Amino acid sequence: MLNATKMKKTTKLLSTITLMVVVLFSNPSMAQMKETTIKNNSTSNVLLKMDMRKLWEDHVTWTRNVILCLVDELPGTDQAVKRLLQNQVSIGDAIKPYYGEDAGKKLTELLYAHINISAEVIKVAKEGNETAVGEVNIRWNENANEIAEFLCKANPNWKLADMKMMMADHLKLTTDEIMQRIKKNYDADVLAYDKVHDEILKMSDMLSDGIVKQFPEKFTPATSKKLAAE
User: Fold this and answer.
1) Rounded CA gap, 20 and 26, in Å?
2) Can you state the angle between helices 101-127 and 77-99, rounded to 10 degrees?
3) Model-wide pTM > 0.85
4) What is the pLDDT of residue 36?
5) How far is 158 from 184, CA to CA, in rounded Å?
6) Which of 33, 94, 112, 139, by CA, is between 20 and 30 Å from 14?
7) What rounded mean pLDDT belongs to the chain?
8) DSSP states along 192-227
């Protein structure tokens, strides 16, 4: 009699658990949450963010390499400059699938100017010519605003004020990196690089997030499956 009672309780417990499982997995909200998670973490989305971060990390890494070469008069300067300029081509190429060939070339052109002017900043700062530094910085900031305006026109998710602030911060942090190296304040020099590295990752994520918002059809689970299969 006791065994029969225990069996009934066990059967009732199993029935309750089964019902809970059925309700849990048939709940539409759970299915929607799963679909949203897949979409937000789609392979194509993640790949874009990773690729964009790699490009912009290369940008600050090779900029630092050139700063060290020019300030400390190290061998390999020409090679470092060449690699840095190639990075600007790669960044331009990265936006071509979304904005076209001409837009990619235009971005590379603007970034080429950004790099060439930065080399002038290093040169006149090393000479201690404050007047020349001020003049070159005006051109550097004008170029930064051109880049911000170009990006803003391409994608409405990239707000002009945000892009201008990002570019201004980038110039400020890069200038600090240059000046600390020239002054031989090596602890501050390392800290300056860490700051510009952190800032460029924020810029990179802003760019990739904006592309995903503007072209959601390119970042669906179906697109991800296609990329994963390739």
Assistant:
1) 10
2) 150
3) no
4) 46
5) 37
6) 33
7) 86
8) HHHHHHHHHHHHHHHHHHHHHHH-GGGGSHHHHHHH
Which runs of consecutive H residues, i.e. helices, occur in 73-185? 77-99, 101-127, 130-154, 160-182
Least Cα distance to 177 among 151, 158, 196 occurs for: 196
Amino acid at 69: C
pLDDT digits (tens, 9 = 90+) for 77-99: 999 999 999 999 999 999 999 99
Residue 52 lies in a domain: no
56: which 2 tokens? 């912009």
Q: Residue 23 falls within a domain, yes or no? A: no
Phi, psi dihedrals of residue 157, rounded to the nearest 5°: -75, -15
Please give the Cα distance from 167 to 209 (Å, whole number).
17
Counted domains in the chain: 1
How far is the C-alpha of 92 from the C-alpha of 67, rounded, in Å? 23
Specify if 5 maps to a domain.
Answer: no
Distances, alpha carbon 162 to alpha carbons 12, 41, 210, in Å: 61, 25, 12
**Domain presence at residue 226:** no
Cα 59 to Cα 163: distance, rounded to the nearest angstrom: 17
Measured distance CA(138)–CA(176) in Å, rounded = 16
**In whole angstroms, what is the distance from residue 218 CA to residue 216 CA?**
5
Residues 203 and 168 sit within 8 Å (Cβ to Cβ): no
Q: What is the dihedral of CA 189, 51, 207, 81, to 10 degrees?
A: 50
